[in-house]
Amino acid sequence: SQQGEEDPQALSIQEGENATMNCSYKTSINNLQWYRQNSGRGLVHLILIRSNEREKHSGRLRVTLDTSKKSSSLLITASRAADTASYFCATDAPGANSKLTFGKGITLSVRP
Amino acid sequence: NAGVTQTPKFQVLKTGQSMTLQCAQDMNHNSMYWYRQDPGMGLRLIYYSASEGTTDKGEVPNGYNVSRLNKREFSLRLESAAPSQTSVYFCASKVAKNIQYFGAGTRLSVL
């Protein structure tokens, strides 16, 4: 069963705008990761945030984690057409034996 | 450095046929995974291998078998393909902190 649920399911924005995507999960976690998938390709790891961290930055990406609400958000600032992709959150739960549980994904379209 | 390589990229099978999806990684990772991706379902884990010589079932193992041939290779076998197994299959291997590297996928259609 899916641990993470992303919101919204689809997002369309103009180039230069910021994109915010949310992920909620159900059980306690060791860490939460975000992955990107371009059309017809495999998933690529973007960023990992540990359960004891609240915010993390990597280039134009900003991830927040609220363990009390069991939720995370991914912010992409100054979006580009090349950011058009599907984005997935994945959780690593204690006792899961190194298995990740992925959400269903968010489709982001950035219009030039 | 190719990362995770999957073959074939595309395959069409008839119901009842068998085939093996191949996966190889050149990053010396211990853990490897097989997922399937269906529209609106995200990725679901079929089988995984924590180390050479070990395999374990994931969320959706029925209809599949796996072999961890050596540290590099992890294959997925469909003994008698069914239309419900039409999907995109991804192999991944794990680096530190449970970050996974993915192959480009195998697109399988079962008619």
How would you characterize this protein structure?
The complex is a heterodimer of chains A (112) and B (111). Chain A is an all-beta fold and 112 residues long. Helix content of chain A is 0%, strand content 55%. In chain A, strands 2, 4, 5, 9, 10 and 11 form a six-stranded mixed β-sheet that branches. In chain A, strands 1-3-8-7-6 form a five-stranded antiparallel β-sheet, with no helix packed on it. In chain A, strand 9 (85-92) and strand 10 (100-102) form a beta hairpin. Chain A is globular and about 45 Å long. The N and C termini of chain A lie far apart (36 Å). The relative contact order of chain B is 0.33. Helix content of chain B is 0%, strand content 52%. Chain B is globular. By secondary structure, chain B is mainly beta. In chain B, the strands form two sheets. In chain B, strands 2, 4, 5, 6, 9, 10 and 11 form a seven-stranded mixed β-sheet that branches. In chain B, strands 1-3-8-7 form a four-stranded antiparallel β-sheet, with no helix packed on it. The model of chain B has no long low-confidence stretch (mean pLDDT 94). Chain A binds chain B through residues 1-2, 30-31, 33, 40-45, 48, 88, 92, 97-105, and chain B through 4, 31, 33, 35, 40-45, 48, 50, 56, 58-59, 90, 92, 94, 97-105.
Task: List descriptors.
heterodimer, A: 112 residues, mainly beta, 6-stranded mixed sheet, 5-stranded antiparallel sheet, 11 strands, 55% strand, globular, B: 111 residues, 7-stranded mixed sheet, 4-stranded antiparallel sheet, 0% helix
Write the layout of secondary structure elements.
The complex is a heterodimer of chains A (112) and B (111).
Chain A: E1 5-7, E2 10-14, E3 19-24, E4 31-37, E5 43-50, E6 55-58, E7 61-66, E8 71-76, E9 85-92, E10 100-102, E11 106-111
Parallel strand pairs in A: 2-11
Antiparallel strand pairs in A: 1-3, 3-8, 4-5, 4-9, 6-7, 7-8, 9-10, 9-11
Chain B: E1 4-7, E2 10-13, E3 19-25, E4 32-38, E5 42-49, E6 56-57, E7 64-68, E8 74-78, E9 87-94, E10 100-102, E11 106-110
Parallel strand pairs in B: 2-11
Antiparallel strand pairs in B: 1-3, 3-8, 4-5, 4-9, 5-6, 7-8, 9-10, 9-11
